[in-house]
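Example record for the data management plan.
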Amino acid sequence: MSLAFCHLENTIEAGLDEAGRGCLAGPVVAAAVILSKPIPELNDSKKLSPEQRQHLAEIIKKEAKAWAIGEVSPEKIDKINILQASFLAMHCALDKLSVQPESLLVDGNRFMPFKELPFHCMVKGDGRFQSIAAASILAKTHRDLIMEKAHEIYPQYNWITNKGYPTVAHKVAIKNHGLSPLHRQSFRYHLTPKQLELNFK
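Corresponding structural encoding:
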């Protein structure tokens, strides 16, 4: 099924999505994208390979009417909580857009209003609308690059592979090496009894 180009016709619509909300380390990253025309290959970033995402990211940046990235650090996440940090990252991205949107399409079911702009929350929107899918791809590729660079400094956590997500191996590395400055201090890092049995039998 192809993704819809827009939700409201004849409207400057910005799609919004974030990446890294469920991670144990690194920033939460959001992207805002205003498309000028359909991009046929667009799809939910989770259904694309890293190579496909990178290829599409380059096309989006070249062909979009406007796009921008917003980041919120682990320290800020710890201060305001991950939900508020996700909204803040989206607001930061919107603030950077070179074109003022008239309406917002937000992936998910909640959003904090931005400058009184009308917005529409779309559950699984990255699999339904092109602008949200584009934002998902830009947020994901940008954040992955951050974590790949961070891996060079902290290779013990294998962020080159897990990108900061709570895999068993990542939790084991935390147990063995402690937390890095890029870990979110307010998050829970415990290993479940099943994971403990699997890794420390």
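Summary line stored alongside the record: The helical segments are 50-63, 74-80, 82-96, 130-153, 159-162, 168-177, 193-200.
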